[in-house]
């Protein structure tokens, strides 16, 4: 049986990959939308708004899952700076997953535009009508989208570094939720943990599943 806390839970993994897909799609839809002057603009916007609100709801669920089930500890031998970078980028991603949809919604509210989810469901405004606020929020939405994209790229690079170079089990714990047992490791907060990220898929040694208890 797998010990609690040494692997990502199934809901955490499903939410991670589903949201990764949705957010990347949203970034491309957003850029395609603002670059388009044809009727495609309206079509993309009609997808962008409900998908953005879906991301907001999923981010809230994900935050609850994250707070209830802390992630597996990082490898004990990971340099402190890399641990700090991991922690910072993960919380930045959470902040942006929540902020981006809220800013988009507030922006349209400030502009006096209805936020329609489909043809009949209209969301209430969350910001008073103000042309100045609309302009500020419009810029903020673009800048935060860029920050989200850069953080996503850094996150992906780090995942590949763990999976292909360090082979320390961090990537496979999000892919399969399985981890080989290993000597002591350190949690996010620095506390020792029973199990560590031992090896990623493709690394040497017997099948990881055999060593999971
Ligand atoms: C995670 C969620 C979201 C992401 C990643 C995202 C991403 C983007 C991106 C990349 C752009 C283009 C920015 C630029 O190049 O200036 C954009 C524009 C826009 N977004 Fe979002 N967005 C999200 C949520 C929302 C939500 C929830 C709404 C509204 C309810 C919204 C409304 C808009 C609007 C109105 C524009 C400008 C369209 C235009 O000027 O033609 N976004 N978004």
TrEMBL record:
Keywords: Cell membrane, Electron transport, Heme, Iron, Membrane, Metal-binding, Transmembrane, Transmembrane helix, Transport. The keyword Cell membrane applies. One of its GO terms (cellular component) is plasma membrane. One of its GO terms (biological process) is respiratory electron transport chain. One of its GO terms (molecular function) is heme binding. Residues 183-213 are annotated as: Disordered. PANTHER family: BLL0291 PROTEIN, CYTOCHROME B561. Its main location: membrane. Belongs to the cytochrome b561 family. Its cofactor is heme b. It is found in: Cell membrane. This is Cytochrome b. Gene3D superfamilies: Transmembrane di-heme cytochromes, Chain C. It comes from the Bacteria. InterPro entries: Cyt_b561_bac/Ni-Hgenase (IPR011577), Cytochrome_b561_oxidase (IPR052168), Di-haem_cyt_TM (IPR016174). The keyword Transmembrane applies. The chain crosses the membrane at residues 14-36, 43-65, 85-108, 120-137, 143-164. It is a multi-pass membrane protein. Residues 8-177 form the Cytochrome b561 bacterial/Ni-hydrogenase domain.
């Amino acid at each position: 049986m797998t010990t609690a806390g040494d692997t990502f839970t199934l809901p955490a993994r499903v939410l991670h990959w589903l949201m990764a897909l949705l957010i990347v799609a949203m970034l491309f839809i957003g850029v395609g939308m603002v670059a388009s002057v044809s009727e495609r603009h309206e079509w993309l916007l009609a997808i962008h708004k409900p998908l953005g609100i879906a991301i907001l709801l999923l981010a809230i669920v994900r935050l609850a899952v994250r707070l209830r089930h802390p992630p597996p500890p990082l490898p004990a031998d990971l340099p402190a700076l890399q641990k700090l970078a991991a922690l910072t980028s993960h919380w930045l991603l959470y902040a942006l997953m929540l902020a981006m949809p809220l800013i988009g919604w507030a922006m349209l509210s400030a502009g006096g535009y209805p936020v329609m989810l489909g043809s009949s469901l209209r969301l209430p405004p969350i910001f008073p009508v103000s042309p100045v606020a609309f302009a500020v929020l419009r810029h903020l939405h673009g800048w935060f989208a860029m920050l989200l994209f850069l953080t996503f790229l850094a996150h992906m690079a780090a995942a590949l570094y763990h999976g292909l170079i360090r082979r320390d089990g961090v990537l496979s714990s999000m892919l399969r939720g399985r981890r080989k047992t290993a000597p002591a490791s350190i949690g996010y907060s620095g506390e020792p943990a029973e199990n560590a990220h031992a090896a990623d898929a493709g690394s040497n040694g017997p099948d990881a599943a055999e060593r999971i208890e």
